[in-house]
Write a structure and sequence with these properties.
The protein is of the alpha+beta class. It has a single domain, classed as Cytochrome p450 (Orthogonal Bundle). Helix content is 48%, strand content 9%. The strands form three sheets. It has a five-stranded mixed β-sheet with strand order 1-2-8-5-3. A three-stranded antiparallel β-sheet has the order 4-10-9. The structure holds protoporphyrin IX containing FE (HEM). The site of protoporphyrin IX containing FE has 26 residues, from helix 15, strand 5 and helix 19.
Length: 447
Amino acid sequence: AVTEDVSRRDAQGGESIPVLNVGDPEFLGGAYEAYEALREKGPVVRVAIPVSTGSDEEENPEGRTAFQEIYGKEVFFLSRYAEVFEALRDERFSSCPHALKSAEELAEEPVVAEELKPLRDSLLTTDAPDHTRLRKLVQPSFTAQAMEALRPRIVQLAQGLLDQAEAAAAARGEKAGERRMDLVEAFAYPLPVTVISELLGIPEADRDRVRHWTEDLLINRGSRGLDKAALGKLQEFSTYLRALFVERRDRPAEDLISRMVHAKEEGDALSEDELLSMVFLIYVAGHVTTVNLIGNGVFALLTHPEQLERFKASPSLSRGVVEETLRFWGPVDTVSGRIAKEDVEIAGTVIPKGSRVMCGLAAASHDPARFDHPEAFDITRPDAGRHVAFGRGIHLCLGAPLARLEGQIAFEVLFDRFPSLRLSRPAEEMSWGHKVLRGFDEIPVLF
Ligand code: HEM
């Protein structure tokens, strides 16, 4: 069970508050029931987030601070659509975890290696006015129009990956209809990672190394943070990127890193640490979520055959598949990084200044007060696009137009090419991966 009504007394002694064990590897499996229970309790519910005390913690205090020293133990969880929708763009909440910490509190934190600070502090954790300045630098490169220009290349990449899967199956002697692949490894992962690497300008020869450096970020460690090996990899990634900036300063290319390096050189638009932070964020955010949009969408179609038939009959429904997947099984369940800058009243509850707030994106997208029959996967749902899977307000996902485009192309190309694609393992035996994001580690299919 994910919520346990009476398992914990609050800090002041009396009241019992539910526990939301987001660090539990099994959490995602029961999360929608937990969100439903929270929605029924009320629009704003104080929950406890257990902090695990594994031995890693003593060994790696710096890791915990760098990435997981997040939001304390008790948070206010928003689970209904109306409140989540408003809170996401409410400027009384800060996205910067350090915003309200006193000098003493900051001094008490274990030290974060200087080189890793830019990887911790990003656009995502910056408030206006710095956020406005940084976002302006990258926004024009990610508009729907700018992304549309990438369509032919993304189609080509998707086709190329399926060619490779076909060739690999042929080499194993498998016949059409009985060919095997892991859809995540062969398609859902390499597509977005290649697209974002090309857009940024990470040379092809370096991509395997870069993938290796960032892969640990996705492992769900609860509150235990990254281990030494993972931190070492990030250190190497950061050294690599700084060297790449020097190279692009001297020999600019037609890519986003060159444009940003140029912006840095031209004026005081951004510092080198900010540049590092931005490239790191775009690289990571640019693929880890989209892998799951593609994987979750394919899995949803394969387990809802009547929806799949509708899609195959009208491939222009790919937009609907994307939006409904984001609503139904969006990759990001919660935005946990909001802190009240002042006392904020929501639906009659006062959230005191300094409190941590979690916005339940998945909970909101399953709110029956907003979506009819939210537990039905329906690719023709007229209002599916009103989900909050990309957040809202100033931090609204920068890459939403890119993710939407990649998702549409992935679904169109995959089912056009292999209309009889099917799972090779019973759906009941599949479960969510033990990661921070909602998605599958592997999706074995026959084609
Ligand atoms: C922000 C989800 C794909 C880059 C966000 C936020 C969410 C989100 C929920 C807001 C977090 C908050 O308010 O704290 C997703 C999902 C994706 C996806 C579900 C895929 C299905 C991408 C892609 C990129 C990207 C492809 C590549 C550029 C970013 C960046 C931010 C962000 C840079 C920070 C924006 C800011 O703080 O101004 N994303 N994202 N995302 N996303 Fe995405």
